[in-house]
Write a structure and sequence with these properties.
Elements: E1 15-17, E2 20-22, E3 28-30, E4 45-49, H1 53-63, E5 68-72, E6 84-88, E7 94-98, E8 104-105, H2 109-115, E9 125-127, E10 133-135, E11 140-141, H3 152-160, H4 166-171, H5 174-177, H6 187-192, H7 197-204, H8 208-220, H9 231-243, E12 251-254, H10 258-272, E13 276-278, E14 283-288, E15 296-300, E16 303-307, E17 309-312, H11 316-324, H12 332-339, E18 347-354, E19 365-369, E20 376-379, H13 385-394, E21 397-403, H14 412-426, E22 435-443, E23 467-469, H15 482-500, E24 508-510, H16 518-523
């Protein structure tokens, strides 16, 4: 049974979701914009272009308020960067491949609210017990024992970390680090967007090991070299995950592959709301009717259909292609901002089905530092049902490796071999395993948040009143990042269109919108 779409998704008190308490009493509830409960009559016709997290959030927000939604997705499956697709292994087993591991942090309030539509208790997510970070010299940091509430989280990390001690804290440039304790959006961009993340970390004078393990982990979550990443975006990550939220750095993972656990149930839910889902159907052009206030005409499959409004929830490359092919869309300034966006460097996901298990004590997820291109290792059979069933039948294991921010013209075979050699260093027992099958995903479609780039990012609203944008590359003045930014902008896009029709929008929740410690805020100038 699905939750009623008009029921408030965010209670005022903390509640339990998916085995983890939504516990931060300082998290911020953004009330639903006021209006009628639902669109009257037949309801406006809306096209949502893109079936990833942002598009699914927008389609959900609109359909729940009575809009007639058609969702267009160019791929055969939904999920965008979290999609999965069926494959057949060399041993004949059916399996699911994807673009790799994603962490569902507990401060992803709006993404989790989306998933609650089909899984009210978030039972299809399970917590991992720790987020260990291994350096090549053998030191390991973790977060299971670190307090979750700032500033005790930072102090607890220093007290427990073998990579970052009290002496290191004394060597820091405290004044340079203070902006991390007073992150406000968008003010943080005025402070730090002109500096790259690596230069900022060096200015703070973190020790090298701690800088890589505890901090570059954040920047590489953007699939970017820290020298190319805005320090403001890095500071926002600190705030969201560590210094500004009491949800902690532990996270949940799906109990089954993404299609089974997440998107197939949500597609059925959307179908029940009357949403038409058209996969393998890319939209090729968008033409505003009049100035866009009267709707838009979208062309897909050589058919042009007029809609009252549209949401473009595409990745950066897809949005550039569509805007480039739609010369009447937007004004020159807006088009230049969209067409000037860039992607982060390519990344590699390698998944191996091995004929023997990894050692019993290996964690389900391990971040790494100093192992050449290897950024993390997942042992999928520790937590994903499909992988666990294959491992039980075969006596083997399913291991996934990630390498972020690779050279644009890297030799693929050489990089894949290098990544596997690093796995053998980290988990030596895997060197003796026979590879039953392997799959490699090379992608370069994640947004880059470059130094000084915040001002030029497109926002949810566009020059056309009936056209809005959503996605993790879309600028918003809320403290959200990655998957949560995608989900949040999807709901914001839905709310913007619903407001045009006088229909109530959807409540949102975020981590606190500024630093938590008054004394540190004062020292930082806030």
């Amino acid at each position: 049974m699905h939750p009623h779409p008009d029921r408030q998704p965010f209670p005022d008190r903390p509640r339990r979701t998916g085995g983890a308490r939504f516990r931060d009493r300082r998290s911020v509830l953004l009330p639903a914009p006021e209006g009628r409960p639902r669109a009257s009559g037949e309801g406006p016709a809306v096209a949502v272009v893109g079936g990833g997290v942002a598009g699914l959030a927008a389609a959900t927000g609109l359909a729940e308020r009575g809009a007639r939604v058609t969702l267009y997705e160019r791929e055969p499956v939904l999920g965008g960067r979290l999609a999965g697709w069926p494959i057949r292994l060399a041993d004949g087993s059916a399996a699911t491949m994807s673009r790799g591991f994603h962490a569902f942090f507990r401060q992803y309030y709006n993404l989790r609210a989306l998933l609650c539509r089909t899984d009210p208790g978030l039972d299809r997510l399970r917590p991992l017990p720790d987020y260990p970070l291994l350096h090549r010299d053998g030191r390991t940091d973790g977060f299971a024992r670190v307090p979750r509430t700032p500033p005790w989280s930072a102090l607890g990390f220093v007290a427990l970390s073998p990579s970052f001690g009290w002496r290191d804290l004394g060597r820091m440039d405290v004044r340079a680090a203070l902006p991390l304790f007073d992150v406000r959006v968008p003010e943080v961009y005025a402070r730090l967007d002109a500096t790259d993340a690596r230069a900022y970390l060096e200015r703070i004078r973190f020790p090298a090991a701690a800088r890589h393990l505890a901090f570059e982990v954040f920047s590489r979550s953007f699939f970017a070299d820290p020298r190319e990443l805005s320090a403001a975006e890095l500071a926002l990550m600190f705030h969201v995950y560590f210094l500004g939220s009491a949800e902690g750095l532990l996270f949940d993972v799906p109990t089954e592959p993404f299609p089974t656990a997440l998107w197939e149930p949500l597609a059925r839910y959307l179908g029940g709301l009357g949403v038409t889902v058209r996969t393998e159907c890319p939209v090729t052009t968008v033409v505003p009717v009049d100035d866009g206030s009267e709707g838009l005409a979208l062309t897909a499959d050589a058919r042009t259909v007029r809609y009252d409004a549209a949401v473009l929830a595409l990745d950066g490359g897809g949005l550039r292609r569509l805007v480039g092919a739609s010369p009447l869309l937007g004004d020159p300034s807006w088009r230049a901002r969209v067409l000037g966006s860039r992607e982060a460097p390519p990344f590699l996901v390698s998944r191996y089905w091995l004929d023997r298990p990894v050692a019993p004590g290996r964690p389900g997820f391990l971040g790494t530092g100093g192992f050449a291109s290897l950024d993390n290792v997942s042992v999928l059979d520790r937590w994903e049902g499909e992988a666990a069933r294959w491992a039980a039948r075969s006596g083997g294991s399913v291991v996934e490796l990630h390498a972020y921010a690779l050279a644009p013209h890297a030799d693929r075979a050489a990089e894949q071999d290098r990544l596997l050699r690093q796995l053998h260093r980290v988990y030596p027992e895997t060197a003796r395993a026979r590879v039953v099958d392997q799959r490699h995903e090379w992608r370069a479609d994640c947004p880059l948040f470059p130094v000084g780039g915040y001002r030029d990012r497109p926002t949810v609203r566009t020059p056309h009143p009936a056209l809005v944008l959503a996605g993790d590359q879309v600028r918003t003045d809320l403290p959200v990042a990655l998957m949560e930014r995608a989900a949040t902008t999807g709901f914001l896009a839905a709310n913007a269109l619903l407001a045009r029709w006088g229909v109530r929008g959807h409540a949102l929740r975020t981590v606190p919108r500024r630093g938590r410690a008054p004394l540190l805020r004062a020292l930082a100038g806030g």
